[in-house]
Amino acid sequence: MATSHFSPRTWGAVLSIIFLSLLVVPFAAAQSEESSTAASSTAPSSDAGPTSDKQSKVALVMDASFSMADPESEGGPSKMQVAKDASNQLVDKLPDSALVGAVAYGSKESNAPDNKERGCQDISVLSPVGRIDKAGLKDSFNALEPKGYTPIGNSLKKAAEQLKAAGGEGENSIVLVSDGIDTCAPPPVCDVAKELAADGVGLTVHTIGFQVDEKAQSELDCVAKATGGQSLAAANAAELAQNMEFLTLRSVNMYEARGTPFEFADDPDSAKYLGEGTYHTKVLPRMGKNEAEDRPFYTKLSVPEGYNAYVTVFAIPEQNADGKVTSDIFSTVEAENPAPNCEDYATTVQPSPRTTSGGRYTPPYSASVLVQNEKQPEDEENRCIKMDDWDIVTTLYFADTLSSDQVNQDVELDVEVNVQYVKAGAFAGDEKKPYASRELPGGTQIEEGAPVAGGATFDSAAAVTPEETYNDAIVDGEYRFYKFDVPYGKRPVVTVQGRKTVAEHQSYGLQWDFYNPTRGSVLAGEDIYVGSEEEVNRSAGDSAVQWANRTEYIDGPLTLPGTYYLVFAKSVNGNKHDRTAGIDQGYSFKVELDGEPMDGPEFTPNFEPGAEPSDTPINLASASEDLEKAAETTTTEDAPKEGDNAEQQSADVAQAGEDSAGGSNLKGMLIGAGVVLLIAVGAAGGFLLARRK
């Protein structure tokens, strides 16, 4: 057994160290956990993810008027029972994270002539707008009894109140089901809809006429048109269920841009710096390429030494009043820097303009640019000395083939801008590897697999496992997002098979794209023709994921490892839209990974809202940590020696560390804790000091 050679006094110092450690370390660990939680970028699942201020909200308005007691068909159940069944079926298909509420009219008061005043106020809130309570909502639907009047206008007002009370900045939609005209007018229900549309809450009303006559359908059409919604007719139970699902799921599943609000500038001098993370704005696109190049949009970027930066611009067109926007939107993004030599450090990752169909019927393509500061030449004459002064130049414009009277120039684009940094480390300046394309065998029929519900956004993408087959379905206007991991050396390959269309004599395209971990487009759009045959398509990037791709003309999007996304949309020609609206198009898909593992720098994206836009460069947190590590090394080298003025030296070292690191985070606290420990053990000798360090 070893014998201690330390004095009791020395052991007292050691015990003091242990006591201090018990105080300091848990506190530091708690701070580390809190910081890590705040900085992480978790992707909510499509079924139970957290809600956000940008999430879409939907209020269902159910008709329980006296006429709903009539049979849906001869000898069949009542229209009320059919509506209950359709509503319950809809609730089962909604994601658990959906923000949904419901009101009903006509279920409490009779439709007696002398009861009209009370009957026109007979509106019940079945469920406030909020995270969906599926069991409670279905119980409320099932309890409805058709009795009274049809106060459509007042019901819309009540539903709008519920949406407004729920707060948030997401889209607000009402889905109204009615089997007749408003029996409580005036005011005319269309006037009520126009008032709600002008109220500034971003309200859209979609309507379904359930076995209504021409006059009632015209009234519902007017309500939808006044608010930019869509009006559908349902002649039977199947169509009612189909249309309710289409309009409600579409409203819930709308892509919602997110991030810190910012505004593009019209010139470089007015532009603000963006930091790491996600930003959001709305803009009106320019008319044609020439105008876009003459009047681009500007932001600014700073890239610290040892890092590369990706800026990805992601545009989501709004729909106009008829819900059928089909104007193509083009987008580009470039980085400019007038300082000498700097032009060689910027690479447009996708060299051609990205095209997004305005009707949401193709995946929304993004445009990306890379700015490299991973390794500067040792010769100062060849260095870019203004890495903190990059202009990010974005163009967004309608196709040149469109005239001003063919597009809705009042429809703004939702635009997300993602800024991501990659530390090159030992891989800085790595030699490019040979072109790594692989032949892609033709697709073969795939069996139907496990059901999966794709998300509506990147953040709600459904996780899928490579080599497994999945089934899903999509309607006009929806996106379906899925995610999977791809390491260095692997190439994502997808096989897609569209199922036979359920719309007789109709055909349309099923389109998809891959997106990389910075959410930049990889494929620029693939599709299959969906008609009477079950067509199969197999597609992939031209290269495996490898660090050497970062400056490649075509393979640039396949540079970084991590979460890749597969996104589907249903492409419909404008003249076919009305005949396919609300129809589920089934499809199956399988993701495979081919290739051999490779090495490359680590990359962890950050899609949290970015720092507030600034007139000065925004420091990158991980770059600051590098400075702190350097300060920590300096602290160790300059630690006080036994016999020196330990207190004064410790103060000097602590001050130097604070100056270098900004006195910011956990590492700074640990340095301070280390100083306390040094003071406590100064008398214990250099050897014991080294062990405690």
What can you tell me about this protein's structure?
By secondary structure, the protein is α/β, with parallel strands linked by helices. The chain has three domains: 8-37 and 620-692, no CATH class; 57-252, Rossmann fold (3-Layer(aba) Sandwich); 260-594, no CATH class. A six-stranded mixed beta sheet has the order 3-2-1-4-5-6, with helices on both faces. A six-stranded mixed beta sheet has the order 7-8-17-11-15-13, with no helix packed on it. Strand 5 (203-210), helix 7 and strand 6 (231-234) form a beta-alpha-beta unit. Helix 1 runs antiparallel to helix 13 (666-681), helix 11 (621-637) packs antiparallel against helix 12 and helix 12 packs antiparallel against helix 13 (666-681).
Task: Reconstruct the topology from this structure.
Elements: H1 8-39, E1 57-63, H2 79-93, E2 99-105, H3 116-119, E3 123-131, H4 134-142, H5 152-166, E4 172-178, H6 189-197, E5 203-210, H7 214-227, E6 231-234, H8 237-252, E7 260-261, E8 277-283, E9 286-287, H9 289-294, E10 297-301, E11 307-317, E12 328-336, E13 346-348, E14 354-357, E15 366-373, E16 390-398, E17 413-423, E18 450-451, E19 462-463, E20 469-474, E21 479-486, E22 491-498, E23 508-515, E24 526-530, E25 536-540, E26 562-571, H10 577-580, E27 585-594, H11 621-637, H12 646-661, H13 666-681, H14 686-692
Parallel strand pairs: 1-2, 1-4, 4-5, 5-6, 7-8, 9-16, 18-20, 19-21
Antiparallel strand pairs: 2-3, 8-17, 10-16, 11-15, 11-17, 12-14, 12-16, 13-15, 20-27, 21-26, 22-25, 22-27, 23-24, 23-26
